[in-house]
Amino acid sequence: MDLLVTYDVDTTTREGQRRLRRVAKICEAYGHRVQKSVFEVVCRDTDELRLIATLRATIDHERDSIRLYSLPSGALDEVEHLGVSREIDPRGPIVI
Amino acid sequence: MDLLVTYDVDTTTREGQRRLRRVAKICEAYGHRVQKSVFEVVCRDTDELRLIATLRATIDHERDSIRLYSLPSGALDEVEHLGVSREIDPRGPIVI
After folding, report:
1. Can you name the CATH fold of B2-72?
2. What's residue B13's pLDDT?
3. Sorting pLDDT into bands at 50, 70 and 90, what band is A86?
4. Rounded Cα gap, residues B86 and A90, in angstroms
5. How far apart are CA B57 and CA B54, in angstroms?
6. pLDDT tens-digit readout, A2-38
7. Which end of chain B is more exposed for a tag (fewer CB within 10 A), N or C?
8. Which residues of A touch B82 (CB under 8 A)?
């Protein structure tokens, strides 16, 4: 299963900055960062459920926003990219 | 065709801040903003080509990054969302 995770975390408070770091760290354990707040994740359904549960328990539901898009298999290999690129293989090993 | 557009624009210079505003304005003409740097776009193939060409001509290719994900039809209606939501209909009218 290919997933795209995008987030906006409100960083106007120290607690928000902490949440931002936590959200990034959680996503880093599951996928590859392709932009500041965008991760590409290749995982099994059970991993997706765990990822969602962990993110849900981490964010402030009145200030932060996370969106998870389910992509058809292989979609991450066909992204149109403009500008500076992090050369990543969405199926490559995850470095934490 | 459903598209997801995500971007990182380097705003460490005034010129970068201008580019960020321009990129947002371009995307607003094609789709709905769902997060600070994420737009959902429902458009025809010709619109997609025009959008890509306009973005390509706008960004600094050594500092900025834009990614366009092609989604299967209807994928935008099945996004998993956590936290604060902009209640949007990806197929609704675009307000510029």
Report:
1. Alpha-Beta Plaits (3.30.70)
2. 97
3. low
4. 29
5. 5
6. 999 999 999 999 999 999 999 999 999 999 999 999 9
7. C
8. 52, 55-56, 59, 61, 64-68
Element (H, E) at A88: none
Mean of pLDDT over chain A: 91
Hey, which bits of chain B come out as E strands?
2-8, 31-35, 38-42, 65-71, 80-83
CATH number of A2-73: 3.30.70.240
Domain boundaries, chain B: 2-72
CA-wise closest residue to A4 among A64, A67, A79:
A67
The single-letter code of the amino acid at A35 is Q
- What pLDDT, on a 0 to 100 scale, did the predictor assign at position B76? 87
Cα–Cα distance between A58 and A52 in angstroms, integer?
10
Instruction: Give A6 to chain B, closest Cα distance, Å.
Output: 8
Least CB-CB distance to B83: which of A64, A69, A83? Answer: A64
Q: Give yes or no for A11 touching B (CB within 8 A).
A: no
Cβ contact B79:B69 at 8 Å: no
Tokens of B55: 């973005």
Sorting pLDDT into bands at 50, 70 and 90, what band is B74? confident
Question: Which region, left, alpha or beta, applies to residue A22 given φ > 0 means left and ψ of -120 to 50 means alpha?
Answer: alpha
